[in-house]
Amino acid sequence: MAEAVDLRGQVADVLPLDPYALRADFPILRTETSTGRPLVYLDSASTSQKPQVVIDAVDGFYRGYNANVHRGIYEIGERSTAAYEAARASVARFIGAPDSREIVFTRNATEAINLVAYSWGRRNVGRGDAIVLTEMEHHANLVPWQLLVQEVDGDLEFIPITDDGILRLDVFEVLLRLRPKLVAFTHVSNTLGTVTPVREIVQMAHAAGALVLVDGAQAVPHLPVDVTDLGCDFYVFSGHKVLAPTGSGALWARRELLEAMPPFLAGGEMIREVHLRRSEFNAIPWKFEAGTPDIAAAIGLGVAAEYLMGIGMDRVCAHEAVLTRYALDRLATVPGITLYGPPADQRSGVVPFNVEGVHPHDVAQVLDRFGVCVRAGHHCTMPLHERLDLAATARASFNVYSTREDIDALVAGLGEVVRIFGV
Amino acid sequence: MDDLYRDYILEHYRHPHNFGVIETPDLRWEGANPLCGDRITMMLDVRDGRIADVAFTGRGCAISQASASLLTDELRGKTLDEAARMSADDVLDLLGIEISPARLKCALLSLDTLEHALAEGGPPASPGDAGTPAGVDAGGTEPD
Q1: Would you call A380 a catalytic residue per the annotation?
Q2: Domain A55-310 is in which class?
Q3: What residue numbers bound the domain in which B75 lies?
Q4: B34 vs A362: CB contact, 8 Å cut-off?
Q5: Which residue in A133, A412, B63, B142 has the most C-beta neighbors within 10 A?
Q6: Which of A361, A369, A391 lies nearest to residue B1, judging by beta carbons?
Q7: Fold identical between A5-31+313-421 and A55-310?
């Protein structure tokens, strides 16, 4: 049995998963770089690799039953519609949504947040109204709200973080006196890996009359997520970070919210009746899916969700928790290294770091020679880097297929960084 | 094994030439690659149409800092026209290493900063979109 991992109360005392066996499902992990090195992919927080079943689902759609959804009165049209809606049901089960009609397919988490900001936001946030975010949001959960409050003359407030990247809920409590309309925050920080206390924040926000949007882009790939249990009002995530194709993602929102919200994008599919001067809109979720969607990607997302449910997200979570602890211990031995973020028991599989005197780009470039892929830069969290007084960081991140050997390769590559730059 | 991080590149990174401040420069520009966090401020003293002194400060990756070190070495003594004619290829030749497309912005930040300094880095302040001519000496066009 794996050691029990206490990740914000999600105790995982589960059969450990075997990443070496799972790796056989991911064709790209058998490839080599141009320098003949095996691929050591440690940038899963940016986008995940795809298992064969997902690749086959996309391939099978285009080869076998490519047709538009909700239109064709012919066999392959009915098959594509059935597969597309089955994917929606899989996604609903995957994140604990009570009703698959509450799942709106989007291109990614960014589009899902924009949908809420435009549709719900412009109807419910007005002059002087506050929206509360945190200092460690991805730009995707910041810029749409900036645009909204600029337009309606509202205000943004931010829950500060400690230097370790832990949210200051004592300050949040004070911010709630502003009676914000919405609290929008990340479930897991894409830069620091911090797992935020969603249930606690939801309870506090609801008690103050605010709705809650949770950005789950970095949580859904790594933790068991149950939106009903979390109690939030909106939950968004990207498919491509959760083993699914790019171009897939989802918004979950409570049914009555979706029903009351006006359309976001307008066009085909989202209508019931169109006249020259007015239209009646389709029922949810199709009201929010104007135009032909990325059918293959959505079907792939459904398959990815089934694949992960087959493994068990509690096991994925336990695997990555053990790996993160291993990474933090091993990386700490690198001369001149600084590790950022909260303690291992409060973070998911993201490890940001810097090597003293070496820019993260140079770190990443040297690691690339060893086939080791890490992200270098600001990871779309410039305000967080500003808060921590960092120009940039390097970041290693994990997924189901990550192993201790990947981390050993990273540490060996960092040894070369230290040698070249004479840290 | 590493073509990019040759000894002279690392030497320029660790001990950049012309690294420092000119107190009242004739031309000054702060350039940045916000995506990488690379930042360079270039300062130039001009006498009789020639670059009499040049200095830079900043922080960033080895490529951006070595490029600034090499470029500023090259600039001293050049006329403003000659400096303005410096091309991307000239800077890449100075670096003498293979630069991948992803690192081109790092390699050329110093040239971009120079171009802005020459075009709009003098008084009166003329804010540009890639940086700011901060702290320009009011009477700086004709030193000495």
Answers
A1: yes
A2: alpha beta
A3: 7-124
A4: no
A5: B63
A6: A369
A7: no
